[in-house]
Amino acid sequence: MYLALARKYRPQRFADLIGQPHITKTLQNAINTDKLYPGLIFSGMKGVGKTSAARILAKALNCAKGPASEPCNECEACREITGDKSPDYIEIDGASNNGVEEIRNLKETVKYRPLKNRSRVVVIDEVHMLSNSAWNALLKTIEEPPDHTYFIMATTDFHKIPATIISRCQHFEFKRIPHEVIVKLLKEICIKENITISDYALFLVARSSEGSLRDAKKILDQAIALSEGGDVKDQNVIDILGVIDEETFIDLSKNIFTKDRKAIIEQVNTLAERGMDLRFFYNEYLKFLRDLMVLKSLDESEKLHNLNPENIPRIKEILKNVREIELLRYFNAAKDLEQTMRNTENPRIILEYLFLKLSYFSSLVSIEDLINEVKSGRRAVERTVQQPASPSSSPSPSPMDAVVSGAAAATASARTSQPGGNAGAGAAVDAEHLKNLLVEKISPERPRWAPALGAAAFEMGDSKLVITLTADFELAYNTIMDQPDYLKKTVLGILKRNIDIEIALADTSAKNENAKIENLKTDEKITNLMDKIKGKIVNIE
Fold it and tell me: What is the DSSP string of 156-215?
């Protein structure tokens, strides 16, 4: 009969127990110092070594060369416990032996001395399944066990164990086994079994096991059975697990970020023609977006995401021009459709709508950024000037770029045409250049002044500079007037000569101010942007 990999490669020593060093060290120290607690609780998810650890502990206690920190696995006691033939090693399934009668029979057994070994070890697996009456019957025996008996209770639901039992036992919590550890162990098993398998396939097996080594071995067993002559193909593992190839998610994300909407539609169409469960695909893509956020946000994220290590360089390349806040917007927009995807009769249409919607996100500008750029002609003009000169190599500007650039041009035009301020075109250029340098100089030390001066009108003559701030920067005007020497010193450093500086505040009536605010609130470009991003205007300064 074929021996499953989970049994064939079951840990036989503490050194073989993978991923639980905190537990093995504690148990070995307790054995060496003869301070092992008579009642132990091993908790943790399935397949992480709870019952294996209990069996190893039983062998270490009864080994002919012990009690020892490691069993020899050669003496009669070790061999009998390994082969489930020892009369003094009792392993009970708590799910099927959960009644009070079974526990009473157990109490009668343990009060007698072991038949052959130094100590009797009783392991109750899935102990949380015991009934209340069974717990009550077990309570006194656990609290005052015979000198020769140890109780080990294994459970996947620690919170279901009564507090009265917990208070009488030592608790050991088994952790999930890291993916990379599982991959390494599976690779060693495949070498011993002469199995050919790729690192990517092992990665898929480890990821699907979710930290359970037993589950990983079971999946590998199934993949080997499906293979031909021990040659496991990637597609074999994908078919067994029902997972989606990560390449599909990578290609889709690249199409979204590059706004290749034709490719998006074709990809969704391909998924539908393959008979893919589109609701399942949506949920898996949510997980992929989460992994992208982790990869982008954290420097050392290898253990925190579920991405294939072989694909990381390519993923980082497509994320190079995507900001963290944008990834968060992508995830929020996708998550908002969760209920819709669950209830819709046409998941394909919803999926197409979602991915097309995401492809527009990189062209959007937040309302706050838009208002700030409209106020500050400097930033908008810089944004326009930096566009490539060659029409053939420059991309078509988005509607939002046109709005901002148009506002900047209007602002710059209005400033250069103000009466009485400049002697000619050369003077106008000098004033604008001075403004840009001044804003750049003061931004690090006076960041609140920068927007006010950037939106101000500069009029410069031979010996006098007049700076007129717009009425909506009255607070900045007051702080500047309180520190005139700082501004004068900064201008002197730029011009390399003394010049009189006059700071003025534009006199705008409340009626005009309210009209400007109302115009911003009803501006067609801003309202269209609000509709697209489902936003609202909180405040206009």
Answer: S-GGGS-HHHHTTSEEEEPPPPPHHHHHHHHHHHHHHTT-B--HHHHHHHHHHHTT-HHH
In the predicted model, what is the mean pLDDT of residues 456-477?
83
Rounded CA gap, 179 and 211, in Å?
6
β partners of residue 153: 41, 124
CA 74, 77, 79, 80: dihedral to nearest 10 degrees? 170
Is residue 320 helix, strand or coil?
Answer: coil
**Rounded Cα gap, residues 136 and 197, in angstroms:** 51
Q: What is the dihedral of CA 209, 19, 296, 268, to 10 degrees?
A: -10
Tokens of 489: 């010193």
Whole-structure pTM value: 0.57
* pLDDT above 60 for 502: yes
Please say whether the beta carbons of 52 and 58 come within 8 A. Answer: no
- Give the residue-averaged pLDDT of 304-316: 83
Strands 457-460 vs 464-469: parallel, antiparallel or unpaired: antiparallel
Tokens of 48: 């992480």
Residues 6+ apart with CB under 8 A from 268: 278, 348, 351, 352, 355
Angstrom distance (rounded) from CA 493 to CA 382:
23
DSSP string, 46-113: TTSSHHHHHHHHHHHHH-TT-S-SS--S-SHHHHHHHTT--TTEEEEETTTS-SHHHHHHHHHHHTSP
Task: Tell me which H or E stretch contains 512.
Answer: helix 510-522
Continuous segment of H or E residues that includes residue 42: strand 39-43
Peptide bond into 67 cis (omega under 30): yes
CA distances from 260 to 31, 78, 266, 396, 533 (A): 64, 65, 10, 15, 20
**Angle formed by the axes of helices 347-359 and 278-297, nearest 10°:** 30
Paired strand residues for 93: 125
